Structure formats: structure tokens, C-alpha cells
Structure prediction request, 518 residues.
Amino acid sequence: MSDGDTPIDRLPSGATSVGVALAAGVAGVLGSYGAAGFRPAFVVAPVSGFISKRMPGAVVTFAITVLGDLGQQLTLVTAGALVVALFAGVTWLWLRVGSAPHIRWTPVLGAAASVWFASALLTWRFVPALGAAAGVAVVVAAAEFADPLARPMAEAPGVPESDGRRRLLGALAAALASVLVGYTAGDRAETLTKDATSAPSGAVYADVDTPEMNVEDMLATAEARSLDFDDLEPLVSEEFYEVDIKAVNPAVDAGQWSLSVTGEVEEERTFSYGDLVDRETESRFNTLRCVGEALNGRKMDNAVWTGVPVGPILEAAGPTSNCNCVMLRAADGYFEEFPLDALRPGLLAFGMNVNPLPRSHGAPLRALVPGHWGEVNVKWLTEIELLEREQQGYWEKRGWHGTGPVNTVAKLHAKARAGGNRLRVGGHAYAGTRGIRTVEVSVDGGDTWTQATLSEPLPGDDVWRQWAHTYESPGTAHEVVVRARDGTGTLQPRKRQSPYPSGATGWVRETIHPSRVQ
Ligand SMILES: Nc1nc2c(c(=O)[nH]1)N[C@H]1C(S)=C(S)[C@@H](COP(=O)(O)O)O[C@H]1N2
Ligand SMILES: [Mo]
Prediction:
């Protein structure tokens, strides 16, 4: 079979154009990623944000409670495909318009300019949009110039209009190169900024009173008080969970950023990053838990946070509202409303475990609201608005009731052999500001109960504890049940309820097969 007989060579030019256009679409998206990294200037970001925002409440709930992080990845892939289709469509139109001979630059420049314009409109960032245009331009140019003679010859009767195979291969090669370059550049931009703070130079702790050793001491205390249990996460989380409404987080420059206190106040106030960092700071342990997580889920973690207490900031503005309600607003368009009294003892944090607050956890500044569900601990905070009457927050508009205090929970995350015929189980227990008094364990499905060993409490009003229990293995499969009693003596409710809408309840139960425990 000669070269000329390969099926691709016999492609009608229409199909070739579609192939070139799709290759250009992919290259455009990767070009945008190369210029922006995984930040709001990445052209897929606004589209995936739009999808998340418009997704019906029921779908969001399904995504959070069943799909977990996969839900957000699906949104991102869908958004990516839509943008590829958009860029490909625009390119295809220009390939049609510009298909006259001798004007090969027309589709190259036309498609690039249109894609730049579309990206700039979507992201409202004009320079990074050039990345998308460059990706598209390279692919269309490669297709057009891969086959130098095709177009002039097309006018001669009997001569094929163009060599579809060469055009398509040129486009694919250029797209592959764009993908590689875009991915590498974007990934580099991303690692440089992912967990980097957007704090101005002279790191947070350089200008504040809190001696860094203070936080170091707290971390050392947490390590010392963590139970000696290999499979159990220590008292300060090694990996802190993350929940965001958008797949692409805001990238806020602390130098440009400010926090305003607005609404029902005597005097509206605005604070720059420097204003806040210069105030008297405080470091606290604070545990967070997401209302959307499963009963024995992994979206509950603890850290040492450094920042300024909210109380004096509120007092500086002088709240006059009589609904006792406040709305926190953020740079990603997130907003949550809850009682002002819950916010008063809170912290505005710009540090996390000795480091500046990472972008993923809300840099430059987030709210910490003691004892309340994660969702009111607003990240990338920009505004504290005192309200006149109650309003619904982002999640409440989607049916959740997650603005109140957390439910009590004892989780079971670790199992191990403990020598001889003994087994050991353990986990974390948390009840917000009520604290944990005891954790009780049953190894016979709930018939008899024993008190578990608890980790020594850490200082603070809103910190979890670890529990562990060692027992003689019955030798056969048995059900372990665990429940906590909070600081007021109230037992964790037995009734099982799903996370939606007000957080999971019930006791964690797990059937343990002794032979399968490592
Ligand atoms: N601006 C903003 N703040 C936010 C969110 C968000 O999507 N945007 N998610 C909330 C939810 S639902 C939770 S559980 C916590 C999680 O905080 P983390 O990501 O630091 O663990 O942040 C809350 N604050
Ligand atoms: Mo959450």
C-alpha cells in the first residue's frame, strides 16, 4: 500500500478542518494554562465556576456527599471540553473564511485574535489570554504551512484541494508541542503559587509580635500529646482537608487586598493586610469539620492558626444591627450568614502551623469561627457585612443548614494488632466548643461499653482529641461501635442521619475481622 492510499490521505478537507480546529482548541486551552497556571486567569476557571454556581442544589449535594472531590474534577473536565469546543468552533470558522489561496495568514491571525478576545472576555485578564491565542496560532499556522503548495494548486482542475494528511499531521504535531510546553509552564506557575502565600515580602512573622517559638511550642505540645498510634493522624493534621465552591481557587495579592467592615455599623472600616498584621496577634488550635462529610469521613482536621481576634475589629466599626447577624463575603464570590455572636470570639487568620496561610486555605486571610461548621470559616475573606435582617448564605440557598455549631462525633480510623491476641482501635473525637468529655467503645455491637483512653487535651476552646482502645480479640468478626460524650455530658445521638442538610449523626460502627487487621 503506497503512502497515498492511507485512509487519512483520503479525508475530505472538511474533516481535516475539524481535526485541525480541535487540535487548535486543545492547544489553546493548554496555552492558557501555560500562561496562567491553575488560577482564575486560566480560561477554564470561569466556565467551571459558572457550572458549579448554576448546578441545581440536588446535584451539588450528590456531588459532595457521594462523589466527593471527583465531582469537582468532573466539573472541571466538562468546562475544559466546553472551552476546547468553543476555541475549535472559532478556529473552524476562520479556516472556512480564510480558505482562499495565498492568504494563509488570515485563518492564523483571525483564529488567534478571536480566541484571545473570547479568553479575555471570560477571564477578564488580557495578558494571560495571549497564552490561549498563541496555542491556537501555532496549530493553525502549522496546518497551513505544512502543505506549502496545496492552496495555489487547488485552482488547477483535477488536483486535490489540499493534502489533508500533511495538514492534519502538522496540526497534531504543533498541538502536541503546545500541550507539552503549556503543561510544563502552567505546572511550574502552579507549584510556585499553590501553597505560597500572597503575603507581601517580609514574611508574616517578620513583622508581628507573636514569637514564632510560640507556635513551635504549640506544635511540639501537639506532637507530644498525640497518642502513639501509627495509623492515627496526629493532633495537628499532616494533611488538612480542603473544600471549595470553585475548582480553581482565587489568587489574591495581599498587597492589593483589603478587608472592609460594612453595613449596619457606626462607621465603615477598611483594613489593609499591613494594618491587620500589625495588630496584636494570637495563635490558637482550631479544628474544622465540613457539614457535608460522611459520619466517619475525612473532612475534619486541626491546625495552629495565627491571626488577629475579630472582636476588636468589629468594635472599631461599632455594630448597630439588631438582627445579631453578619454576612462574610470572599474573593471567590462565596458568602455565608450567621449570628454575630458566633463571630465575636473568632480569629482572622493569616498564618497556619508557623507558615503564612496557604492559598488553598484562604490566603491572605480567613475567618475562624469557634465550634461552628467549616462552611462559615470563610476563606479569602474580603468583607464583614453587618446585616439588618437575616439572609441566606451560599450553602443555605442550596438547602444546607450548616451555619450552626458542629455535631458531636467520634470517628474510627485506625486499627492495629496490639501484641498477642489483642487489637487496638482509635480515632478522633470532636464536639466544637462543648469539648469532649469521654469516648465510649463497644466491641460487641453495642451491648457493653468501656471508656477509651483520650489524648491529653490541647489548650483552646475548639480542639479535637484522639481516642484509643485496646482489647482482647474475640477471634471472630465483631462489631466495634464508638460514641462520644461532649463537655456538657450529652451523649452523641444514636439516630443515624445523612450529612444533608444539617450534618451526619449516629454512632460510627465497623465490623472487624481480626485476621484482616495488620
Ligand atoms: N471563600 C470560601 N470560603 C470557604 C469555602 C469556599 O468554598 N470559599 N468553603 C467552606 C467550607 S464548606 C469548608 S468545610 C471550609 C473548609 O476549609 P479548608 O478548605 O481550609 O479545609 O471552608 C469554608 N470556607
Ligand atoms: Mo464544608
